[in-house]
Specification:
This protein is of the alpha/beta class and 249 residues long. It has 9 helices and 7 strands. α1 runs parallel beside α2, α1 crosses α9 and α4 runs parallel beside α6. The longest helix has 26 residues. It is globular and about 50 Å long. The structure holds NADP nicotinamide-adenine-dinucleotide phosphate. The site of NADP nicotinamide-adenine-dinucleotide phosphate has 32 residues, from α1, β2 and α7.
């Protein structure tokens, strides 16, 4: 059966690497983004030049109407959905807990957790064998921060990822009889733009050597784990969260 996958936040970083990999593997891919239209178009073009099919869909994961429209665009372009990668995420600004700003915290919750829940709802409505679908797989991109708590910097961000991990376990159990597998990955220090947009542009340079493996990872190294969990090769794996964190615990 042809694979039809939505990758949220696929214009840059881990999402872009995942979309490109899935496209090379023959999937039809929805490349979601919010701002970086040219970058999303470049991912679509790369997939097309590798012989695949992809469309870019602008949709803010904090907005329910955008999410519903994104899934409808996928239905129209490619037909039955087989996979969802809940990757879109923001780090928020580096701060200590006593400096928390309500609007910033709510934005984190809406994008990193609310968006994942609503996308999961839309995917399960389409994929559940109980609801007439053909089954499928969901991979949630969490963070090793869900385990460490990201103290002195991004505790609210880490808490949203803890929520993502809890959701992964709950929805995996809830949908296991409906032909849907739900898993997660917890990336460690990955060389993407998120560090600059979260107030620490030199984070990779400062901390890479302190990682257990003595380096940060490239987004493609996370994409490989995501693609595996999404694929038939992971057919007996559900409710599992894989650390892609180079030994950070
Ligand atoms: P990134 O390079 O900053 O890329 C973020 C992607 O998410 C972009 O495509 C961006 O779209 C999209 N995005 C942001 N807000 C969105 C929204 N409201 N709606 C839809 N799309 C949105 O980040 P990344 O490092 O690849 O991060 C990807 C995921 O991995 C995130 O969930 C992040 O928390 C997680 N993670 C990353 C690391 C790391 O070290 N990099 C570690 C642990 C976990 P635009 O380009 O249009 O802005």
């Amino acid at each position: 059966m042809r694979q039809v996958v939505i990758v949220t936040g696929a214009s840059r970083g881990i999402g872009a690497a995942t979309a490109r990999l899935l496209g090379r593997q023959g999937a039809d891919v929805v490349v979601n983004y919010t701002q970086a239209e040219a970058a999303a178009a470049a991912v679509v073009a790369d997939i097309a030049s590798a012989g695949g099919r992809a469309i870019a869909v602008r949709a803010d994961m904090a907005e329910e109407a955008d999410i519903v429209r994104m899934f409808a665009a996928c239905d129209d372009a490619f037909g039955p959905l087989t996979g969802l990668v809940n990757n879109a995420g923001i780090g928020g600004q580096k701060h200590r807990v006593e400096e928390t700003v309500l609007d910033d915290m709510m934005r984190l919750l809406r994008v990193n957790l609310g968006g994942v829940i609503l996308c999961t709802r839309e995917a399960v409505r389409r994929m559940s064998k109980r609801l007439g679908g053909n089954g499928g797989a969901i991979v949630n991109v969490s963070s090793i921060g869900a385990v460490t708590g990201s103290p002195n910097a991004w505790t609210d961000y880490a808490a949203t990822k803890g929520g993502v991990d809890t959701l992964t376990i709950g929805v995996a159990t809830e949908t296991v009889g409906y032909g849907i597998r739900v898993n997660g990955v917890r990336p460690g220090l990955i060389d993407t733009d998120i560090h600059a947009s979260s107030g620490m542009p030199d984070r990779v340079a400062r901390f890479a050597a302190k990682m257990p493996m003595g380096r940060a990872a490239q987004p493609e190294e996370v994409a490989e784990a995501i693609a595996f969990l999404l694929s038939y090769k992971a057919s007996y794996i559900t409710g599992t969260i894989v650390d892609v964190a180079g030994g950070v615990r």
